[in-house]
Design brief:
The chain is an alpha/beta fold. Helix content is 48%, strand content 19%. The termini are close together. Keywords: Kinase, Phosphoprotein, Phosphotransferase system, Sugar transport, Transferase, Transport.
Length: 108
C-alpha cells in the first residue's frame, strides 16, 4: 500500500526541499512513499489526501490545530525529528513517516 505524507511549515517553502529529498530516498529504497510539502493553511483544504502529516520544528506550536483537522481523517501528526530536520536527514524522516503510517494502519 502506498503512503502519501506531507511535511508542513508555515508557507511550504522550507518543506519543499525536504519533501523532495524524502521522496527521492523512498524511491531509492524501492518504497511507495510520496511526500508533499505545504503550509498549514493549505493542509486544512487538502487533509483528506494524506496518510500522515509531519510539522517542521519551527511550526510545532500549530500541532494542536493540525491535529484537530487530521483527526477527522484518522491522520497521525508528529513533529519532524529535530536532529533529522537540522541535518536534512531524508532517511531518518522517511522512517518516521513509515512508523507513523503503521500506527494508523497504513503501510508502504
Amino acid at each position: 500500500m502506498a503512503i502519501h505524507g506531507v511535511i508542513l511549515c508555515s508557507w511550504g517553502a522550507t518543506s519543499s526541499a525536504l519533501a523532495k529529498k524524502v521522496t527521492d530516498e523512498a524511491k531509492k529504497q524501492g518504497l511507495d512513499v510520496t511526500v508533499d510539502a505545504g503550509g498549514t493553511g493549505e493542509f486544512k483544504k487538502k487533509a483528506e489526501e494524506y496518510d500522515v502529516a509531519l510539522l517542521e520544528p519551527q511550526v510545532r506550536h500549530l500541532k494542536k490545530e493540525v491535529e484537530t483537522i487530521a483527526e477527522k481523517y484518522n491522520i497521525p501528526v508528529d513533529i519532524v525529528d529535530m536532529q533529522a530536520f537540522a541535518l536534512m536527514d531524508a532517511k531518518k524522516i522517511l522512517n518516521q513517516i513509515i512508523e507513523l503510517a503503521k500506527k494508523s494502519g497504513k503501510e508502504a
